[in-house]
Amino acid sequence: MQLITIEDIRAAAERIAGTAVRTPLLPTNLGTPDRPLWVKPESLQPIGAFKIRGAHNAVARLSPEVRERGLVTYSSGNHAQAIAYAAKEFGVPATVVTPADTPRIKIDAARAHGAEVVLVPMAEREARAEAIALETGATLVPPFDHPDVIAGQGTAGLEIAEDMPDVELVLIPVSGGGLAGGIGTAVKALCPKAKVIGVEPALAGDAQAGFRAGAQVHWAPEDRLRTIADGLRSEPSKLTFAHLLRVLDDVVTVTEEEIVEAVRLLARRARLVVEPSGAVAVAAHLNRVEELPAGRTVAVVSGGNIDPARFAEILSS
Amino acid sequence: MQLITIEDIRAAAERIAGTAVRTPLLPTNLGTPDRPLWVKPESLQPIGAFKIRGAHNAVARLSPEVRERGLVTYSSGNHAQAIAYAAKEFGVPATVVTPADTPRIKIDAARAHGAEVVLVPMAEREARAEAIALETGATLVPPFDHPDVIAGQGTAGLEIAEDMPDVELVLIPVSGGGLAGGIGTAVKALCPKAKVIGVEPALAGDAQAGFRAGAQVHWAPEDRLRTIADGLRSEPSKLTFAHLLRVLDDVVTVTEEEIVEAVRLLARRARLVVEPSGAVAVAAHLNRVEELPAGRTVAVVSGGNIDPARFAEILSS
């Protein structure tokens, strides 16, 4: 299996310049003297999540003839928006197949970018997207199981390494594994002394189980569905899992209560609107001190697409 | 009267590098094809507002002997935090004199940085700060009425000009006038074709009245106190007003309802926690089309220190 390289990530960075925002590292007061914390706010991307990096890179890599036949994808929401956004930029049609329980804000946003949205039960989404690709000739751009997508997500890691060459710990949400695999590849290439640790909800803790066993462990979709972190209910593919094994030092998990508290603290202390999935790395920093090395820490805040009513409820509680 | 120059701003930029975040321009979906909108999110600064730029620049310019005698200031909140933060960085004591009705979140933050907080009626704050400076030998660093403070705030304008040399319109909140005077100086020097327009609440519309009359107009403090935008209740000094006359093309005002709606939209569409004062420039973009030139627009989002309960209430309404 061919894994992506730092050169793939550098090439992706050139492709996405002008589309993805080069997000800054924000110092926070959520750290301690021996564990100062910066956040990388990917919630500030045009679609509210890092997914624009991988989607744009993958779509830019297609030949114009192939691209014009359209794009299709399956996604819990943020990748769907990213494909819809990339399709609009390139002026081609897009269809997104989305689990029926995806937050309305994510579905509406994909529609607002002009994509056709097909709602299906979560277990059927990949098959339906593949069927649409076969029928229409559209290209299936998967949410993580593709080298161009992984390389695109890795550009966030390139930026971390450029902005803080002496970073000691990078914490990254893990679901399908594209973000952690991509960022980890960049950080390990450029800051080889830094530790890179994935974070996921304990209720969707399949990546930790697999990583610590050294071989992938599958959890039933209905189990992974339990977490509030709707963007972290996928499982890695063979390709992304191989990247995780290569670049991560560990995977830690956080509880639902810790995720909600991190959302609240990020609003109050960092003035960021963050969705539960986007807050897990900060939750780990605050609550898993015994499992994490000390030092200058960057937590990737992966997205900010949360229903306003739920967000208001979290802020008031 | 000596006004600041682009060289003063460039020198300030060197002083504040490493303390202030170099905030990106964030593209939004709040614009229209002929008026695309980017926001400059100063709410993401370490203290949650642009004030860190001017405060750090002014404190860095003091001689070590003077600085060690301590700092004192008066402020509606964000400048108080900025002085407290700068004092902590330089290891010197700070006292902040704050109106008694300042939001608790701002007062607590200044205390958290180790400053002594003195609460007084708004009309007495300047006199009390001056008295403390006389008694203790501390240096009074005013919130806007000082060239070093104005030059520091201007660094945000330098960044706008660097990141978008073809910007056509810059919208900036106006209260004491340091931010608008500083940013306007940078933008007019580097992008002479761009229009620069100040924005304030109609309930504290003294700067518009003065600007359009060509001479300062004074409103009673109790009138300026009516707006929800607690950071925009000051009036320009002679020094800042002279800057506004030189660099602004106009001042427009927005209603309280428009400010609240902009706070709500910035949370939902830009994933930013913004205080009412920070949202006025976006409110103008959305509601004052007839008074604003078209073109590529940057709205400065000046701060994000809003009481969580009030923010949750705005999001839910």
Automatic annotation (TrEMBL), chains A, B:
<dbReference type="GO" id="GO:0030170">
    <property type="term" value="F:pyridoxal phosphate binding"/>
</dbReference>
<dbReference type="InterPro" id="IPR036052">
    <property type="entry name" value="TrpB-like_PALP_sf"/>
</dbReference>
<dbReference type="GO" id="GO:0003941">
    <property type="term" value="F:L-serine ammonia-lyase activity"/>
</dbReference>
<dbReference type="GO" id="GO:0018114">
    <property type="term" value="F:threonine racemase activity"/>
</dbReference>
<dbReference type="Pfam" id="PF00291">
    <property type="entry name" value="PALP"/>
</dbReference>
<dbReference type="GO" id="GO:0000287">
    <property type="term" value="F:magnesium ion binding"/>
</dbReference>
<dbReference type="GO" id="GO:0004794">
    <property type="term" value="F:threonine deaminase activity"/>
</dbReference>
<protein>
    <recommendedName>
        <fullName>threonine ammonia-lyase</fullName>
        <ecNumber>4.3.1.19</ecNumber>
    </recommendedName>
</protein>
<dbReference type="InterPro" id="IPR001926">
    <property type="entry name" value="TrpB-like_PALP"/>
</dbReference>
<dbReference type="GO" id="GO:0030378">
    <property type="term" value="F:serine racemase activity"/>
</dbReference>
<dbReference type="GO" id="GO:0070179">
    <property type="term" value="P:D-serine biosynthetic process"/>
</dbReference>
<keyword id="KW-0456">Lyase</keyword>
<dbReference type="GO" id="GO:0005524">
    <property type="term" value="F:ATP binding"/>
</dbReference>
<feature type="domain" description="Tryptophan synthase beta chain-like PALP">
    <location>
        <begin position="22"/>
        <end position="303"/>
    </location>
</feature>
<comment type="similarity">
    <text>Belongs to the serine/threonine dehydratase family.</text>
</comment>
<keyword id="KW-0663">Pyridoxal phosphate</keyword>
<comment type="function">
    <text>Catalyzes the anaerobic formation of alpha-ketobutyrate and ammonia from threonine in a two-step reaction. The first step involved a dehydration of threonine and a production of enamine intermediates (aminocrotonate), which tautomerizes to its imine form (iminobutyrate). Both intermediates are unstable and short-lived. The second step is the nonenzymatic hydrolysis of the enamine/imine intermediates to form 2-ketobutyrate and free ammonia. In the low water environment of the cell, the second step is accelerated by RidA.</text>
</comment>
